[in-house]
Amino acid sequence: MQMDRQSLIAQFEKLLPLAAKWAAAVEQRILREGVPLSEQEMSDARAIGVREPERVRLLALDNVPTPADLTLQAAAAVIQFLTPATCGLALRYGIFVRSDCWGERTLVAYELAHTAQYERLGGIEPFLRQYLFECLTIGYPDGPMEQEAIVAISRLDSRRVA
């Protein structure tokens, strides 16, 4: 299915519930199969502002999870979301980490910054509404939510050396 940014913007509200349903299903898989945060990751999560870090689970996967729905696949391609280059993805309390990136503290901390955003915004659909719309209209990684995550890990990095 061919899609461009304009048609995606026009269909955004129709696609959002499908994307949220997919994200919730993947989150459930990660929560079932994943591992809790290490002590260091718990400390990082608290420093970043995650309110309930004990709920977070990490799951190593060889490949980036992608939706089976062809329309969602086409939409993700338009905004270059969920590409083979994706190393990690926060779906509220479930964080996927590509196997070859497992153990990268900065990556996990970056995804934890998104977990804090999910908490602040009130769940999967409100997060995706803002995050995906920013990716669509402003572009990745220039959107405010991405920039907030970048700043959060830079502050964490400065705390490590202090």
What does this entry look like structurally?
The chain is an alpha+beta fold and 162 residues long. It has one domain. A hairpin with a 2-residue loop joins strand 3 and strand 4 (94-98). It contains 6 helices and 4 strands. It has a 4-stranded mixed beta sheet.
Percent in strands: 5-15%
The backbone outline, from C-alpha atoms, is globular
Biggest sheet details: 4 strands, mixed
Order of helices and strands: HEHEHEEHHH
What is the percent of helical residues? 55-70%
Roughly how many Å is the radius of gyration? 15 Å
Unreliable stretches covering 5 or more consecutive residues: none
- How far apart lie the N and C ends? 51 Å
Number of helices: 6
Domain module tally: 1
- What is the count of β-strands? 4
Alpha-beta content class? alpha+beta
Q: Which strand order spans the largest sheet, edge to edge or round the barrel?
A: 1-2-4-3
- The whole-number mean of residue pLDDT values reads 93
